[in-house]
Design the sequence.
């Protein structure tokens, strides 16, 4: 659905026309029917990439294709839905009027526009606010009406730039559910974000962009397959006195609740030694949980790398 080869983008900013490289030869591919998370810190080049794909800016090098067609082919836009990072809405239009305008831009007939608008407003939880002016919408409501307008043409490809930015936990869950619902309908969703917990829940594959370079790409399991256990959490009971003090010294941290103690050990060797001591003390191990590196750990590692 999306393919780029050696995509480059340079800007010249300021009075002295300082050269800024936003993208450094970006090559990637997004498959049909998948949810692809485009990750990166602020300034990594995510929004620039999306603007290039949408035809809002032109690359200084490389090439890109949408659904097998060059991005310069405007006909492909009929099958795309797009939500920019900071959308502008006509404040004095109601939600229903705004959806009608969006449908008109795609040449939809009146009955089709009305039916589609009603369906989408209900899907994003705004059917009760369809006659409310957009200037009275909260940040979360604006984000949801933005997603609704991106779906007015029933697109095959949905491109969302930071769709969960500024939302509270309830709003983020609603957006996640919408994205998963679109995936169930066979849509392809490509979205940029820096909110990593949402990515692990809904994405089939992810790409990590840092300073204009794609540092990693694949499924979360693939990216984390080679990671080691970084800590072990053990909850035990029935240990007291000097043996309990020894376990506390071996652990990097402990929390005691009633008769149970939860201790965290920095590696598996320390956890094995602690487990032996618990058994030798006549205690009981309630749980033993190894913690591997997370997507957040990988992300921070890639962001922190220097040439």
Sequence:
């Amino acid at each position: 659905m999306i393919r780029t080869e050696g995509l480059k983008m340079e800007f010249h900013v300021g009075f002295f026309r300082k050269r800024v490289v936003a993208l450094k030869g970006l090559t990637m591919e997004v498959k049909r029917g998948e949810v692809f998370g485009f990750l990166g810190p602020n300034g990594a080049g995510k929004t620039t990439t999306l603007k290039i794909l949408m035809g809002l800016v032109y690359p200084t090098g490389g090439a890109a294709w949408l659904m097998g067609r060059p991005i310069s082919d405007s006909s492909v836009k009929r099958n795309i839905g797009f939500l920019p990072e900071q959308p502008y809405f006509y404040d004095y239009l109601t939600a229903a009027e705004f959806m009608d305008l969006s449908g008109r831009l795609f040449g939809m007939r009146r009955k089709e526009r009305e039916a589609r608008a009603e369906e989408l407003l209900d899907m994003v939880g705004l059917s009760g606010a369809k006659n409310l002016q957009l200037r009275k919408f909260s940040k979360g409501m604006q984000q949801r009406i933005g997603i609704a307008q991106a779906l007015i043409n029933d697109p095959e490809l949905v491109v969302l730039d930071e769709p969960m930015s500024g939302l509270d936990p309830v709003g983020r869950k609603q957006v996640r559910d919408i994205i998963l619902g679109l995936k169930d309908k066979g849509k392809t969703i490509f979205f940029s974000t820096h909110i990593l917990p949402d990515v692990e829940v809904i994405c089939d594959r992810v790409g990590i962009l840092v300073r204009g370079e794609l540092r990693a790409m694949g499924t979360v399991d693939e990216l984390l397959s080679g990671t080691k256990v970084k800590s072990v959490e053990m909850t035990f009971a029935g240990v007291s006195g000097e043996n309990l003090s020894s376990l506390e010294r071996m652990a990097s941290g402990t929390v005691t609740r009633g008769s149970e103690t939860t201790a965290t050990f920095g590696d598996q060797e320390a956890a094995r030694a602690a487990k032996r001591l618990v058994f030798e003390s006549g205690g009981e191990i309630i749980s033993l949980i190894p913690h591997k590196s997370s997507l957040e750990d990988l992300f921070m590692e890639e962001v922190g790398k220097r040439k």
